[in-house]
Amino acid sequence: MEKGRKGVRMEELLRELVEAPSVSGYEDDISALIKKELKPHVDQVRSDRIGNVIAVKGKGSPKIMLAAHMDKIGLIVKYVNKDGFIFFDKLGGWDERILPARNVVIHGSKGPVAGVIGCKPVHLQERDEAKKPIKLKEMFIDIGATSEGDVKKAGISVGDHITNAGTLRKLRGSRVTGHGFDNRIGCLVLLEIAKSVKIFKGTLFLVGTVKEEIGLIGVRGSSFSVNPDVLLAIDTTIPGDVPGMSSEEAPLKLGSGPSLEIKDQVSVVCSQVKKWVTETAKRGKIKIQLNVSSGGATDASIVPTVREGIPSGAITVPTRNIHSPVEVADMRDVNNCVKLGVKLVESAHRYF
Ligand SMILES: [Zn+2]
After folding, report:
1. How remote is the CA of residue 261 from the centroid of ligand 1, in Å?
2. Over the stretch 185-235, which tens digit does the pLDDT of each residue have?
């Protein structure tokens, strides 16, 4: 019964996190939500000068830093033409082919404004044109405005951020879909660890980082100031269990547990972190997957270059259709990632 209530509560919190607009560089909404959720469970929580949220729990050694990036990929207003159509640029790694025909929300000075991404209709495209993906510069957002002045009246100006419309939806069983799971799922895991972890040795720093999707930016300053003995990033990763992909390409599966990122495009896990995570998972009887990937990066990838080098690794939740408006995850993987995170905090003193 208790477990059921916890599951519902976690899904509700994920819904709130998904609905927070905050794309890279515009993290105010999600940062406020994360601070509110963390406050009752930590000794102190603050934001640093560039917006990273840093919460502290416990005291002494070792210093353990858990980092989940708070931003998600999004779009940004670039130019408004005289007829009231809005042109935009990308924030983060979008697949441009999936942008046309999206419902979006523009976050202007007068609150959220609904819009759609339009392009030239298929009927009027030349035969060759129809075979090629539509370019970003050929897409526009239509908010129903009749002029440039009308867009201004709606409170929209250059630099405003744009998100996908829609919220969390339940699929079959324990699977859910939504946008921004990368990395609202990591934020959820971070918050649940903060709530669940009780007895451990050392100081736990729970950090929500900014601007990960546009260059792993927030973690550099926050890890420098915390100066932890170890940093564990919590993020999402790419499973290969969908049509058109193979295990040779991406061996992870949804529902088979959280993953330890062994290698990504930028870095390789530090050996002591690998030992800590694999042994703790084994002792705690938590099934994990090991990911050797040729793509992507996490906050953990960059911190071995901070100060004299901070040992790091990343635990991740497999997420299908990653960086799209219909990401799919399994709440069982989320739960097991929380369990693993708690056990890692409890066992960190044996390794660092
Ligand atoms: Zn991510």
Report:
1. 12
2. 999 999 999 999 999 999 999 999 999 999 999 999 999 999 999 999 999
Helices 181-196, 28-38: axis angle to 10 degrees equals 20
Instruction: Show Cβ contacts of residue 340 under 8 Å, excluding neighbours closer than 6 positions.
Output: 258, 277, 280, 281, 284, 286, 288, 315
The answer to whether 286 and 339 are in contact (CB under 8 A) is yes
Domains of the chain, CATH where assigned: 2-72+179-350 (3.40.630.10), 75-164 (2.40.30.40)
Q: Which residue shows structure tokens 């130019």? A: 79
Q: How far is the CA of 212 from the centre of ligand 1 (A)?
A: 7
pLDDT at 193: 98
236 Cα: distance to centroid of ligand 1 (angstroms): 6
pLDDT band at 48 (very low <50, low <70, confident <90, very high): very high
Residue 299 has pLDDT above 70, yes or no: yes
User: Active-site residue 212, yes or no?
Assistant: yes
Average pLDDT on 19-23 reads 95
Residue of 212, 213, 261, 327 marked catalytic = 212
Q: Could you give the angle at the alpha carbon of 330 between the alpha carbons of 317 and 37, nearest 5°?
A: 70
CA of 178 to the centre of ligand 1 (A): 14
Which runs of E-coded beta strand occur in the chain? Answer: 44-47, 53-59, 63-69, 74-80, 85-91, 103-108, 111-118, 140-142, 161-164, 169-170, 175-178, 202-209, 230-237, 259-263, 289-292, 312-318, 327-330
Phi and psi, residue 271, nearest 5°: -60, -40
Contact 154, 145 (CB under 8 A): yes
Q: How far is CA 114 from CA 151, 166, 260, 298, 340, in A?
A: 12, 11, 39, 32, 40
Å from CA of 131 to ligand 1 middle:
31
